[in-house]
Amino acid sequence: MRRYHCPSCQQGLYFDNTACLSCGAELGFDPAAGFLLLDDDTARACANRAIIGCNWVAAGPDGRCLSCAHTAILPNLSVGGNAEKWARLEQAKRAVILMLDRLGLPLVDAAGAPAPVFEFKADPPGPNAPRVLTGHENGTITLNIAEADDAERARIREEMHEPYRTLPGHFRHEVAHHYWDVLTGADPRLLDTLRAVFGDDRQDYGASLAAHYAEGPPADWAERYISAYASSHPWEDFAETWAHVLHVLEGLETAQAFGLIAGSGLPEGGLRAMAAVPMEQLARAWIDLSIALNAVNQAMGHDTFYPFVLSPAIIEKMETVRRLIIEGGQKAP
């Protein structure tokens, strides 16, 4: 993430600011231009600003911003707490949409409609009612709004024996499934490349997941997979790896913006320039940074900042994803 400043007084801003805390100017964020002064003639607030605090500017005829336009289904807002959960989901989604846009990845389908689209759903009432499962299908990403509750997300993380579970992580993982389809659809030859690295995705997905949950990951999974779940199926290996490439790129750009990785040799020309650097070099800088931040978190009594190990085999997989983003991102839809 870049550092942003108020266009009126140059005070530093956080990405989610709706106003400058120094001069009081009302602000709207434009993905291309950064923060702008709100003005009915040049920059209008997103239609969802009053409801969920969206700080982006309107981009379409319906008054919604670029990010909100990708949301197709909302939870029932008459239910207490749902509006707050929707707001947290959109807050995390805005950062991911911005990153995808800056990387040059397509955010529309062949007809020009927003893609992927997101459905934010709540579990239906009743103990025996079917639960809403987070996942992706044909360009639609469904997210259970319970994930916006920190306590519930922590409970699920413990139940699933996961070292890490966050809203940005969910979004980065699920959009990977979308871009597998989009980018290989634009260039079918990419399927051979991905299958050579991640395995044959034509193996039965349901059976693979059932086997994973019944038997667990292979004993040596940590040498070849970024997470235990990544070992369940090639699609999940790709999605987990993709998510971590975005983690690394976003984390390094943010650290660079705050002067935390001076001397790393990484370019300062923006996110796409960072993504053009081979993953081996990115991984070296990331490992150094994450070791330091792991120690800081430990000193402050917090959870480990980055509880993952980037083995040579995993870095090679991440390099495949990095090249896919750089070389294939502009070819679709």
Notable traits:
Zinc-ribbon domain-containing protein, UCP012641, 333 residues, 11 helices, 2 domains, four-stranded mixed sheet, alpha/beta, Zinc-ribbon_6_bact
Give a brief outline of the structure:
By secondary structure, the protein is of the alpha/beta class. It is built from 11 helices and 8 strands.
Strand line-up of the largest beta sheet? 5-6-8-7
How many strand units? Answer: 8
Number of domains: 2
Helix content: 40-55%
What string, H for helix and E for strand, traces the elements in order? EEEEHEHEEEHHHHHHHHH
Low-confidence stretches: none
**What class would the helix/strand composition place it in?**
alpha/beta
Mean pLDDT: 93
Overall geometry = globular
Distance between the termini: 26 Å
Task: Please describe the biggest sheet, giving its number of strands, its sense, and whether it closes into a barrel.
Answer: 4 strands, mixed
Tell me what portion of residues adopts beta-strand conformation. Answer: 5-15%
The number of helical segments is: 11
Task: Please compute the radius of gyration using only Cα atoms.
Answer: 20 Å
InterPro entries: UCP012641, Zinc-ribbon_6_bact
Domain Zinc-ribbon: 4-78
Protein name: Zinc-ribbon domain-containing protein
